[in-house]
Amino acid sequence: MSNTRVSWNNKSHPSERGWTREKFIRGAHTKTPNEIYYVYYSPTGKRFRSIKNVNRHIETNKSKINNLNVIFSTVSDTNVNITINPNGGIHIRWQDIV
Known about the structure:
By secondary structure, the chain is α+β, with helices and mostly antiparallel strands. The chain has two domains: 5-66, Methyl-cpg-binding Protein 2, Chain A, CATH 3.30.890.10; 67-98, no CATH class. Helices cover 16% and strands 39% of the residues. The chain is built from one helix and seven strands; from the N terminus they run ββββαβββ. The strands form two sheets. The protein has a four-stranded antiparallel beta sheet. Strands 5-6-7 form a three-stranded antiparallel beta sheet, with no helix packed on it. It starts with a strand and ends with a strand.
């Protein structure tokens, strides 16, 4: 039997898109033969064996993204892009408007 990945929506994080899962059936030689289990894949292709690990991954990455703030403003014919990194560093880019 060939396994294929199918689109999957996490009920704990319904706004997360791009996740897939693959269905497997345990072999006859295992402790629980014919039991169905799933393997989950992130949008980047990272593999997870449990929903618990999927949710931990989402929460960890979500907190990293939430700590990143980008502010755009205009100062007399100049665009200013200020990025505040999660570790507290600040990156400022100035571009003249032509």
